[in-house]
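Marked as duplicate of an earlier ticket. Keeping the data here for the record.
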Amino acid sequence: MSKLEEALEKANKLRESGRINEAGKVDVARETVPIEVNNKNLVTITQPYSPVAEEYRKLKSMILRKTKKDFLNTIMITSAIKGEGKSVTSINLAVTLAQAIDHSILLIDADIRKPMIHEYLGIEYKYGLSDYLTSDIDISEVM
């Protein structure tokens, strides 16, 4: 069985176990973890009134207009080249979205080779997405 098939089977078992509610959300109880941001590029946190932070708010507004019109709820930020700012853009956009809408925002670092979001936010982690997809780790251990 391929890794993808194993991951899909794991997701189906989670759904069958009742851990996923009717809205498609995984019920995970997790305490809030304080973050310490020391990266000047996370302008929506460190410099919320700067021109660059305003550009992220403009991007957020364009995305919200599109998602409302087309009923979309997933955004993926990607690039073929390292160092282009995927993680920084993802965090800044997630912050502006969380500030603007009355919903939770789930930011997933799906960079299997070199996940960075936890480092930018000063969060220690034990397991990541690839650990969850390839082993019997509970989803609460990853979030």
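See parent ticket for discussion. The longest helix spans residues 51-70.
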